[in-house]
Amino acid sequence: MKLVCFADFHLGISTYGRTDSVTNLNTRVLKALKSLDEMIEYTIKNKIKVVVFAGDAYKNSSVLPNIQAEFNKRMRKLVDNDVTILCLDGNHDVDRIETKKSPLNVYDDLKVDNVVQTRFHKEIELTIDNETIKFVFLPTYHDEMEIRHIVENTQYDGKPIVYIFHGTIRGANLNDWNIAEKETYVEPDVFDKEGVAAVVMGHLHKHQILYNKPLVFYCGSLQRVDFSEEKQPKGFVVLDVQQDSSVTYDFIEVESQRFFTLNSNLIGIQDETDYVINELSNYTNKIKNAIVRLRLDMDKSNYINEQRIHEYLYSVGAEYVLKIEKRYEKREIVRNAELTENVDEHKALRLYFENHEKFDKLIKLGDEIILRAKKEGKI
Q: What pTM was estimated for this model as a whole?
């Protein structure tokens, strides 16, 4: 049985976007929906009958009605094409209060055919074309003991088992560094049980295969959320589960919001603005339709024309350009050996600012302040 697996959609993110005049939706929302449409068209075209969603449909549980309508419209298209959707709430879809419903709960409330949705432990057996899989939803909010207890008590009766989980497996990566220690980890050996074919995971946005037998993997997100995901490919997983619990898989990349960063060192460079624009001209294919940021190392002698740089970036198709980040050298402060408590205020002032470019103005102002303070008896 083939499954299309995705997670961490986070619909509703609007950072660096703008309102589209035709749809009245944010451009970041429109791009996210486009990637979802790409996944749906793949599912229908390839006659795949099951979609597994491993959590975080929305950026938070308070969803604007028009945003929710767009997501629901697409789920309806899958159902109308005889696709069964298995849908687990993520931590962004619902908070820890067990009685609070997520926006995804509408499918359960309305008893939508071919949609199974929950945030709690739930088991279902699904048969498609004479192939049966036992799907086990794991609770969104959990501790390792709870997950281990559920897995140990899941009965294997000859049908392959697929777990749907929104959480963190120890050893998984968030981008290029390890997960922060505040995460609730589940040890990987939890799923090393007879009959377990795969664990479809959401929560971490980087697509990654953690273990091959059973196959434990993060779908990854369909869209890049921010610059921390700049270099990550985005897409969904097509999982083919055999009745002997063996699996094969493919990662299908989709078009996703581009992010591009240029780091440039301008110290000692003349004609800095032209230099930056010339550097950017080497990356026009990456800049087009991208959210762009520039990080420039500079010193006090450098000058750039920010307006020219912004105009150039938009002229080559940048989607959005952040304010240029100027990073100045941290200079080591060396204490002047003559600057001691025995030096009077006026001489101390001159020693302190002796190499400053505005020495004369600072000394004049400083002398006036010292004289006023003495007159008032403050020093």
A: 0.81
